[in-house]
Amino acid sequence: MKATAVDIQNYLPHRAPMLMVDLILNIDSSSVETVFLVEEDNIFVQNNIFIEAGLIENTAQTCSAIVGKKYFFDDNGLENENVNVIGFISALKNVKIHALPKVGETIITKADLVSKFTGDDYTLCTMSCQSSAEDQILLECEINLFIQKTISVG
């Protein structure tokens, strides 16, 4: 499945003020690219700078889109309704933060799938990630994620 300029909320349970990705620029089964505009009222902005925790959350949400699409869309690309997932970062490896973006800058985050293990209702994966603003690399890391489908009651 290849997508262009898709709302990230179609792939993640996150909502404001914890939503750190605006759009998915490209996505397939092994890579994803997202865009995020740093705004002044963002909870991770301090003194006009988007702090480290925000960069890491942006990266985690970008990576989760690849895994999340398994739960939110069927094999034909049709949206599954009433799906709930939980997810968390299980490890960050080789984190290098080169710079922090300022308010008004746009972050482009790219992630490639390194490995994935899928169970009946959960997925573990490792992703290689890089974030940049304009031509400057902001962050590089590997991230391990755990995503699990939860049971809807009601």
Can you summarize this structure?
This is (3R)-hydroxymyristoyl-ACP dehydratase. This protein is globular.
Question: Which strands sit side by side, in order, in the main sheet?
Answer: 1-2-3-7-8-9-6
Q: N- to C-terminal separation?
A: 31 Å
The strand count comes to 9
Rounded to the nearest angstrom, the radius of gyration is: 15 Å
**CATH homolog superfamily:** Hotdog Thioesterase
Instruction: Please state the average pLDDT score.
Output: 83
What is the domain total for the residues? 1
Taken in chain order, the helices and strands follow as EEEEEHEEEE
Number of helical elements: 1
Rough outline: globular
Structural class: mainly beta
Subunit organisation of the chains: single chain
CATH architecture title: Roll
Protein name: (3R)-hydroxymyristoyl-ACP dehydratase
Pfam families: ApeP-like
Description of the structure:
The chain is mostly beta strands. The protein has one domain: Roll (Thiol Ester Dehydrase, Chain A), CATH 3.10.129. The chain is built from one helix and nine strands; from the N terminus they run E-E-E-E-E-H-E-E-E-E. It is globular. The protein starts with 5 loop residues before the first strand and ends with a strand.
Blueprint of the fold:
Elements: E1 6-7, E2 23-27, E3 31-37, E4 45-46, E5 49-50, H1 52-72, E6 84-97, E7 106-118, E8 122-133, E9 136-150
Antiparallel strand pairs: 1-2, 2-3, 3-7, 4-5, 6-9, 7-8, 8-9
Protein name: (3R)-hydroxymyristoyl-ACP dehydratase
InterPro entries: ApeP-like_dehydratase, HotDog_dom_sf
Pfam family, one: ApeP-like
